[in-house]
């Protein structure tokens, strides 16, 4: 029992000595822990990487819808033979450029070349065409891709900009949890002190060791001591885990001193105003509204039944052959030039093409041609009917979610208002209360040294002061977490 009382007296004295410690050293503890978390918390790196990924995705989306370029050599064929007459070579280079954001406008150029019979037969072709959608959803789809990538980038950048606050919020939550464990330990210590006071009072009343009343008081004291040891063990385990997460190496004997210092070091900030918070800047509602609008737009894009595309082009074919006449050779060339134009009409499962090919030269040998094509896919038509049904159901679902969020916002806002009021008065009340308990602990320590009060009363005052200190620290933690939470959930 004597050792136990000495242990508590030592803890109380350590806490009191801290009360006179410089405030700078106390605040440095918190700053050091926070700096360690900044450097070592994986969430910090994740938020940085997610912002970079979102930025790259936005650039990719923007580049993809503004300009699409494709260069290809086509098939290159080269005959490997020593026979000159059988040697041949061909290549089919092509280039295509598309701009989805500008009505899917595009240009295609092709310049095939082939040589055979050892170079006696050479064909050079060239074709160029331009195309654009007169009516389609390609432009809307491109704009939607940019908008989605842009919103994802804004969300990631906001998180990145708040990364320091979010890491600090996570630290404050961990501190709050360890303080909860510490509060349990202080409560058990307090219960032990009260049980000890009760035991001594019964003992002073003259009851014998074998009396039921003194035996009950002693059993209560033993029970309180056992529960305190259990709480102390649980707290020690939690404290070591907390120290590891903060890069701190502290022996068990320093636990109480450290957490007393940390309680004073928690930043004290004023609670933010919520006067400007409305449903219009509530991020959950903003996100739900955007999702609903995009769902409607996606359905319109994916289910739009008609696409009309126009195309116009020019082509040239030049074939040169070398013909032997006795010992002499003669070169014969044939050239064909024409212009083309056409329209493609497409609805889900059905596609129709109509075009013309009009020669520029040798119209007698190369008359104009009309080109028609038609295709149908019954399965695609059936899939389209199912997609229409699903699209309507998806739109209804997103509208229900949006309406529920708007309906629940009033309750959410009431919760914010209650929390703000509660944390605000707790911060003020516990700050005033702390001063009273601190002064009371100092007075009891002085009175104890003068022999006015006994050790148990002195310990009780010290424990009440520590509990008040933890309440004060938790009130500051709640305010800081609330401030970050409001910034997370509202765009203002």
Task: Explain what you see.
This protein is an alpha+beta fold. It is built from 10 helices and 11 strands. Strands 1, 2, 3, 4, 5, 6, 7, 8, 9, 10 and 11 form an 11-stranded antiparallel beta sheet that branches. A hairpin with a 2-residue loop joins strand 9 and strand 10 (350-359). Helix 1 packs across helix 10 (455-489), helix 7 (255-265) crosses helix 10 and helix 8 (283-303) runs antiparallel to helix 9. The longest helix has 73 residues, at 378-450. The protein is elongated. Residues 1-24 have low confidence and may be disordered.
Q: Mean pLDDT score, rounded?
A: 85
Class from helix and strand fractions: alpha+beta
Q: In angstroms, what is the radius of gyration?
A: 41 Å
Unreliable stretches: 1-24
Q: Main sheet?
A: 11 strands, antiparallel
- N-to-C span: 60 Å
Brief descriptors of the model:
10 helices; alpha+beta; disordered N terminus; elongated; eleven-stranded antiparallel beta sheet; 492 residues
Write a short abstract of this structure:
The chain is 61% helix and 20% strand.
Secondary structure layout:
Layout: H1 2-19, H2 23-40, H3 42-66, E1 68-72, E2 77-78, E3 89-91, E4 94-99, E5 105-110, E6 113-116, E7 121-135, H4 138-161, H5 163-204, H6 212-246, H7 255-265, H8 283-303, E8 307-325, E9 328-347, E10 350-359, E11 369-376, H9 378-450, H10 455-489
């Amino acid at each position: 029992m004597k050792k136990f009382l000495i242990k508590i007296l030592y803890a109380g004295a350590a806490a009191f000595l801290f009360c006179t410690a410089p405030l700078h050293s106390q605040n440095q503890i918190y700053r050091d822990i926070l700096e360690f978390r900044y450097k070592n918390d994986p969430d910090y790196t994740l938020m940085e990487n997610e912002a970079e990924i979102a930025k790259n995705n936005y650039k990719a989306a923007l580049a993809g819808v503004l300009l699409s370029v494709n260069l290809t050599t086509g098939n290159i064929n080269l005959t490997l033979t020593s026979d000159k007459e059988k040697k041949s070579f061909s290549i089919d280079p092509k280039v295509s450029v598309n701009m989805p954001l500008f009505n899917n406008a595009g240009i295609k150029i092709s310049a095939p070349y082939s040589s055979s019979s050892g170079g006696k037969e050479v064909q050079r072709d060239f074709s160029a065409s331009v195309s654009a959608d007169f009516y389609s959803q390609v432009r809307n789809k491109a704009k939607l891709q940019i908008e989605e990538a842009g919103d994802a980038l804004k969300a990631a950048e906001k998180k990145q900009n708040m990364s320091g606050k979010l890491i600090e919020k996570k630290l404050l939550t961990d501190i709050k949890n360890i303080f909860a464990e510490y509060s349990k330990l202080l409560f058990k210590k307090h219960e032990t002190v009260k049980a000890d006071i009760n035991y001594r009072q019964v003992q002073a009343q003259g009851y014998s060791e074998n009396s039921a009343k003194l035996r009950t008081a002693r059993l209560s004291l033993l029970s309180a001591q056992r529960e305190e040891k259990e709480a102390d063990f649980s707290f020690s385990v939690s404290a070591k885990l907390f120290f590891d997460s903060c890069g701190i190496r502290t022996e068990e004997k320093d636990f109480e001193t450290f957490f007393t210092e940390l309680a004073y070091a928690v930043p004290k900030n004023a609670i933010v105003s919520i006067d400007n918070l409305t449903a219009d800047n509530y991020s959950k509602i903003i996100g739900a509204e955007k999702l609903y609008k995009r769902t409607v737009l996606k359905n319109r894009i994916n289910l739009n039944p008609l696409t009309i595309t126009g195309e116009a082009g020019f082509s040239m074919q030049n074939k040169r052959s070398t013909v032997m006449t006795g010992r002499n050779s003669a070169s014969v060339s044939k050239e064909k030039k024409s212009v083309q134009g056409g329209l493609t009409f497409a609805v889900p499962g059905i596609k129709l093409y109509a075009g013309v090919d009009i020669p520029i030269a040798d119209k007698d040998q190369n008359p104009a041609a009309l080109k028609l094509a038609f295709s149908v896919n019954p399965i695609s038509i059936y899939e389209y009917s199912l997609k229409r049904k699903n699209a309507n159901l998806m739109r209804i679902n997103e509208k229900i979610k949006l309406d529920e969020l708007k309906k629940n916002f009033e309750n959410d806002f009431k919760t914010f208002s209650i929390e703000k009021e509660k944390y605000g008065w707790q911060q003020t009340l516990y700050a005033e209360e702390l001063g009273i308990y601190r002064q009371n602990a100092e007075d009891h320590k002085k009175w104890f040294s003068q022999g006015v009060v006994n050790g148990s009363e002195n310990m009780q005052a010290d424990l009440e002061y520590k509990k008040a200190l933890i309440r004060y620290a938790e009130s500051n933690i709640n305010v800081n977490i609330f401030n970050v939470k409001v910034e997370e959930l509202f765009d203002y």
